[in-house]
Model the fold of this input.
Amino acid sequence: MHLRIDGISKAWGTSTALDRVSFNAGASDFVCLLGPSGCGKTTLLRIVAGLTEPDAGSVHLGGRDITRLPARERGMGIVFQSYSLFPDLTAAANVGYPMRLRGVAVGTIATRSTELLAKVGLGGFGGRFPDELSGGQQQRVALARALAAEPALLLLDEPLSALDPAIRAQLRGEIRTLQRSLGIPTIMVTHDQDEALALADTIVCMRAGHIEQIGSPRDLYERPASRFVADFIGRANLLPTHFVREVMPGFLERRPPGADATWELCLRPEDIVVEAGPGGDAVVADVTFLGNLARARIDWRGQVLLAELPGRSMLAPGEPVAIGATRGAWVAA
Amino acid sequence: MNAIAAPRSAPRARIGAVLLLAVPCLGLLLLFLHPLFTVASRSLTDASGAFTLANYARLLDDPGLPRAALHSVTTGLVTTLATVLLGLALAMALHRSRLPGKALIRATLLLPMLAPSLVLGLGLVLLLGRNGLVHRLTGWPTDIYGFTGLVIANTLYGLPQVVLIVSAALARTPARHYDAAASMGATAWRQFLDVTLPRLRFALLAAAFLVFTETLTDFGSAVIVGGNYRVLAMEIYSEVVGQLDFAMGATLGMLLLLPAVLSVWLGRLARRRQDSGDASPGRALVPSRDTRRDLVLGAVALVALLPMLAVVGTVAYVSFVKLWPYQPSLTLANYTGLTEGFGPVWTSLTVSLVAAIAGTVLVFALCAGLRKAPPGLVRPLQFVASLPAAVPGMVIGLGYVLAFNHGPAAHWFHGSLLVIAACSLYHYHAQAFLTMQTGMRQVPDALDDAVAAFGGGTRAVLRDAVLPFAAPAAIATFFYLFMRSMVTLSGVIFLVTADLGLASVTVMRLDENGFLAQAAAYAMCVVLAGAIALGAMRLLLHILKERRHVA
Done:
């Protein structure tokens, strides 16, 4: 179902959590709300879920205004970061819970729960209690339970944040596969840019209660709309206009109009070309070897740049180098 | 699947949430605040109901009253000092020593929880009174009545609570602080001064204020071992029961309320500032080998705990003596041939059961209601719910008499079990509320939200999210209210009638009339009921933990 968020605002006392936020999500989209902590992404998710009431604005699902509808009448499935399973119920009973609330027949609940647990790779674990499951398994149960609600919309509130990195990566892949195969529109809150890049069809990048940019992961990485997005997603070298005019004036042609101070050039570390040679006007400050690649900090006329090179490149600190760039994007400072 | 049934309507859930808060609030208003204000207004009005300060002026006319106030404060201060020092040593013995037999120390500390100050006072009299066991055995002229007896009885009563508070603070001090101090060359004594003590500051303060309040408002030991050393609680009792001067009783009650409120308020401040400790406790602390420290702590533990055992042991022994102190042969007659029968014990059990059930339900509803209440409402309600901690039992009891013995419902209220149960419940409301609130804080917000998101209303949230986590707290609340209601004397002393005896009151009456062996037998019944309740509570909590997978 199509989700439309329109001019949502929310304040907690005097501090603004959301300021007139709007966006749309398509019928089977995976949308990530991405931003640093305190940017309002969780508040926005809770408003969509009906757990928090907005001060202004509206939420439409499938053309129906659900802004004032209480959470329990919205029919959404939700997975929280942690501690959301009933500790005194087995995995199967947890999964069956939404159906029990709706008065589904006991036999149907049992079959459905077994099915759903198998779907998240936990066939045979139905009799376990949450404290007998690992963190990753608990989140799988929570996911199965969210699906048991036959949700019109699946909401994931940092579902992977409390897990170990290895399990996080694995479960991330499984969530994506599952969501694709079921075609349920999904909104996930995360502060982890890697997660957002890997999972989302659309990323909504938020900052301090408003949306900085909406777009595909590739859009946000290659054409960040603001200094904040450039900095938050991936690594960025941000160069002021006057410096660019001095060292690589070719980029100036594509700069949108405006005062110098309002624009900066964003160069991704992998787009910087480094050539060793006595004629170079830059100097290698230090090199960090990371296996498949090496990250070098380079002093170029008083500006320190971060460059990523193949791990085999033999740069040494103090070595003179020449700098170029294959591509760059102008961002609002 | 087309299993999505029509959801229940939202307004009904709202009504449920409102009721959740409204019923317990009504209880607090009618059965706590109303009696309390009645006492206050009675102290400020004359016979015709006009405002006057004459009652307070009268306080100074009788030289006995200022003296009683002085006695109360002196007893309170000395008891507080003794209890806090001994309690600190006992907590150190439990958590920072290698003493053997810690389980024994813990078990002994349970005694005062089962035996109210009344029983401790009785034991002291039987042991060290003019005709006490020690005098019988040695011929020494012992006389425990008065200041010393009060201090000992109240100290024994307060010790377990101080040990509990200090122990909790000790458990929050991580081992690595001691490792750090030791690696910099601090001796054990320096570590105590520099690591242990600073972290205990607020716990000690909170404990001190608690003991001071309890001693000041204690009636049980005052009536048994106070003798001619009159304290305020005794004066209130004499004014009301002896001279039927309710106005003076109310005025003295207000006098007692003042320091109690102040003390509880300061104790709260201290507790709020308490160091919450490190988030990660890290390595468990293993006390180093230190014979001298262990000897000293062991000696203090003996000094503190032997009297406790001796006092309760004496009551147990005397309860089997034929005619104390004249015929020392042993008999069961004190139990089988009770003059008043077991009636008062059953009455006490009934009252306690009613108070415990009603109290647990009301406090559960209040805490559950507060979770979703508007922020502006939470603070004032928390204050009122905790206020009973500062109100002496006698003041509440007096308030009940003044508020309910006249007026429309007087006939129904007079001598009713329910009134006594209500009085006990609201007397101990603060601690019950605190326990329940702590339990409810365990409920993860995510669980709450999950129930709501999957279509559950207020009832489903309570049943599926709140109850599993709050059940241990509810059980603890139930037994706390039950045990306290069983033993309380100060709250109910004005409410009992000729037909409606309570076990604790009967102990007092038998003692007053010199039937000491029978008083002891009655006291043991009370202690036994408490012990059974405590055992049942531990068992239930254990089973719950095994079965429900909730820590």
Remarks:
- DSSP finds 24 helices and two strands in chain B.
